């Protein structure tokens, strides 16, 4: 019995020393792990709210913003509003409650999105609008936008130079609640309306959507088979319009004009399928938004409330410069 007690006591002491030694070995690892976790928790987060990721152009916008924010040392999370203002509001509620430090924002609606930006401002979270604007000044910290009006003035001039000063044409509008829709339309008409011989026989919204544009133009072609051109408020609609024209056997009779500078449209211009587009720079807008947010969070708020980004006209004459 006495022997067993001594054995047990000896084993107990051995186990105690082994345990202490293991703790000694593991402690630095545990501390490093803990420090990494705390460092992750302290990393400031930036939210990127995109109107829809069902469009390659907006995917570039969102991913470019995320990549630049991460390069600047932030954790960045993309939220897809799916062109739904209610879902956008849900995102803002979650972002505000979750302690994000800034929002890089591509609004779903110039007026409908105001309430979300106001809520973020009240929570002291700066909002930087990208590509699309809200209609009220002073709520967003900065709005980084393509110069849509001037870009479409260039398109209007090329439209007249290409199709001539006489003939019937149609216009496909984007989302009616998006200021970009109307700025592009106004820029185009600032030129084309100076030529009475150019008659717009249809102006309909296709919501910046390729499939809807195809359906809308199919209907327009039934009512107006003699149109000679169609101006589209973005490249997705231009591709949809071209599909409808091709299906109607009129690819050599109707000129298509787009706006955005999407890769498939640039390729279509090089192949003579589409006449021209306005080349925007989603990556530039996104990177600027992330950089301004970084400056703001570091205390530098000396920048303009609106930052216009130039739009370049892409035609068969210079398309080789943009194919890459």
What's the arrangement of secondary structure elements?
Elements: H1 2-42, E1 45-50, H2 56-71, E2 75-80, H3 85-97, E3 102-105, H4 114-122, E4 127-130, E5 142-146, H5 148-163, E6 167-173, H6 179-192, E7 198-205, H7 210-223, E8 229-232, H8 235-247, E9 255-257, H9 263-270, E10 277-279, H10 282-297, E11 306-309, E12 312-314
Parallel strand pairs: 1-2, 1-3, 3-4, 4-5, 5-11, 6-7, 6-8, 8-9
Antiparallel strand pairs: 10-12
Commentary on this structure:
By secondary structure, the protein is α/β, with parallel strands linked by helices. It is built from ten helices and twelve strands. Strands 2-1-3-4-5-11 form a six-stranded parallel beta sheet, with helices on both faces. A four-stranded parallel beta sheet has the order 7-6-8-9, with helices on both faces. Helix 2 links the parallel strand 1 and strand 2 (75-80). Helix 2 (56-71) runs parallel beside helix 10, helix 3 (85-97) packs parallel to helix 4 and helix 7 (210-223) crosses helix 8. The model is unreliable at 1-40 (pLDDT under 50).
The total of beta strands comes to 12
- In the predicted model, the low-confidence regions spanning at least 5 consecutive residues are 1-40
Secondary-structure-based class equals alpha/beta
Count of helical regions: 10
The CA-CA distance between the termini, in Å, is 87 Å
What is the percent of helical residues? 40-55%
The 3D shape can be described as: elongated
Summarize the main sheet. 6 strands, parallel
Order of helices and strands: HEHEHEHEEHEHEHEHEHEHEE
Our Rg estimate from Cα atoms comes to 28 Å
Average pLDDT rating:
89
**Order of strands in the sheet with the most strands?**
2-1-3-4-5-11
Percent strand equals: 15-25%
